[in-house]
């Protein structure tokens, strides 16, 4: 049988870190086993689902490269199918109509709690065989088995058993004419041939109910794997302050998609002490059965370390489109200024993210906005600065415009003026950037471009002479 996994987010918010890890694990499990990965949007919560959230989920999946073999499917487009299956269950005596008002349900729950029992439906309509009638309170309830237990072997948590008498007759169709989550998800997974259900462990309590619906429909029950929570660095639930933000905010903050995936795969799974995984290695090595039972902790510093690793080791040209996206987002027209790949080479050892890189790269895409007074005083207002700048300018005007020949010019000026390299580099650095800190001086000059570099030298000479 072909392995088929699915990622089924609810578009009541954006795709967060926990959801992205679930999507990745589903994707990897299907890819490793030569199976298929399905994307389904569970949008039946009409009050909270939004088109913006749907688009944000699709954008995040595309950015991460978690391509689906089928979908996206939308539950709101399958309402007739849910109604058909619910009616079949009623006709087979496996579900029934119930007509209690909200006040009656609440009174029922309060009475149970007063007796020290779990607040639950008391089964009033279970055996009354009430026919369909127009009623604003009408729901369809599933006739849950009253004896025995539900047992399943979770691929992460191990054997789980649940007594049926702990489960009440859940509503499968609400009074507003929409199916409930526990019902719709089973119908979807049956129709879509899902063989492996991989999801967060907040769904463990739903699983026994869903398994009973599978049995009632005479369908094969899929394998289940429930993933533990992701906590923040201090061991608390993720919050907006501690990384529980949209995946696309990580893009905005300058992280690479494959760095984020590499980090996410290690949040609950490992392969020895290996930290760096290519996409191909993740597919070859990942097994959902190897996921840890314990919760994982999200560490932004570790993610930043991984991101810098990829900035330093990936081919600059392969990173250039993503960096260009960040530059454009900052209002930079990359047709005027250095090629993004060249900037990456100059700055990747000095930053952890593209966001930091954009900030440092602005010196080559815009005029110097502000001069560092201390840098000017120390490196331009001295006896040798003007001589250095005046000696370098004609040589830079005639040399091949590449970092190597520019470096030779600097060495030539140092020999001509009998000064150390620092005495040559620092006036030029201040001339190019307005500060005394930048990447190597040959790259700093090269990225300014010949015309702009010579103009900045002229401006620095004027400033040096007061």
Structure description:
Helix content is 47%, strand content 11%. It has a 3-stranded parallel β-sheet with strand order 1-2-3, with helices on one face. Strands 4-5-8 form a 3-stranded antiparallel β-sheet. It has 19 helices and 12 strands. It is elongated and about 105 Å long.
Question: How are the elements arranged and paired?
Answer:
Blueprint: E1 4-7, H1 17-32, E2 36-41, H2 51-64, E3 70-74, H3 79-91, E4 95-98, H4 102-114, E5 139-142, E6 149-154, E7 158-163, E8 171-173, H5 181-191, E9 196-200, H6 207-216, E10 223-227, E11 230-231, H7 247-252, H8 257-265, H9 279-285, E12 296-297, H10 300-313, H11 316-329, H12 340-347, H13 354-365, H14 373-379, H15 385-398, H16 403-417, H17 421-433, H18 441-448, H19 450-464
Helix pairs in contact: 1-9, 5-6, 8-10, 11-12, 15-16, 15-17, 15-19, 16-17, 16-18, 17-18, 17-19
């Amino acid at each position: 049988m072909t392995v088929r996994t699915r990622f089924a987010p609810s578009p009541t918010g954006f795709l967060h870190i926990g959801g992205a890890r679930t999507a990745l694990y589903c994707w990897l499990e299907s890819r490793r086993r030569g199976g298929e990965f399905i994307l389904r949007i569970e949008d039946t919560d009409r009050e909270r689902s939004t088109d913006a959230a749907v688009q944000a989920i699709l954008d995040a999946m595309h950015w991460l490269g978690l391509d689906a073999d089928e979908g996206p499917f939308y539950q709101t487009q399958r309402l007739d199918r849910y109604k058909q299956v619910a009616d079949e269950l009623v006709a087979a005596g496996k579900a029934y109509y119930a007509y209690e008002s909200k006040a009656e349900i609440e009174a029922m729950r309060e009475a149970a709690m007063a007796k020290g029992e779990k607040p639950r439906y008391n089964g009033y309509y279970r055996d009354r065989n009430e026919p369909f009638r127009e009623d604003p309170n009408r729901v369809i309830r599933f006739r849950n088995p009253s004896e025995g237990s539900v047992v399943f072997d979770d691929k992460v948590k191990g054997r789980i058993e649940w007594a049926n008498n702990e489960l009440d007759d859940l509503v499968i169709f609400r009074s507003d004419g929409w199916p409930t989550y526990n019902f719709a998800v089973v119908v979807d997974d049956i129709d879509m041939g899902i063989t492996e259900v991989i999801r967060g462990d907040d769904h463990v309590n739903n699983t026994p109910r869903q398994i009973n619906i599978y049995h009632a429909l005479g369908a094969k029950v899929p394998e289940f794997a429930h993933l533990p929570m992701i906590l923040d660095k201090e061991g608390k639930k993720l919050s907006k302050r501690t990384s529980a933000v949209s995946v696309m905010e990580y893009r905005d903050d300058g992280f690479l998609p494959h760095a984020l995936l590499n980090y996410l795969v290690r949040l609950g799974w490992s392969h020895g002490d290996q930290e760096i995984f290519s996409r191909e290695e993740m597919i070859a090595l990942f097994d959902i059965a190897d996921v840890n039972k314990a919760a994982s902790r999200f560490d932004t510093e570790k993610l930043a370390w991984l991101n810098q690793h990829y900035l330093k080791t990936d081919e600059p040209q392969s990173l250039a489109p993503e960096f260009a996206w960040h530059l454009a987002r900052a209002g930079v027209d990359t047709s005027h200024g250095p090629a993004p790949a060249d900037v990456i080479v100059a700055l990747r050892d000095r930053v952890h993210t593209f966001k930091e890189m954009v900030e440092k790269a602005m010196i080559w895409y815009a005029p110097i906005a502000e001069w560092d007074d201390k840098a000017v005083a120390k490196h331009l207002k001295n006896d040798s600065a003007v001589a250095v700048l005046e000696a370098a300018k004609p040589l830079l005007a005639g040399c091949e415009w590449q970092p190597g020949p520019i470096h030779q010019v600097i060495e030539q000026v140092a020999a001509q003026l009998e000064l150390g390299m620092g005495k040559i580099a620092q006036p030029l650095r201040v001339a190019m950037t307005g500060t005394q800190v930048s990447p190597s001086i040959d790259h700093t000059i090269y990225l300014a471009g010949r015309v702009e570099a010579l103009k900045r030298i002229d401006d620095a000479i004027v400033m040096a002479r007061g």
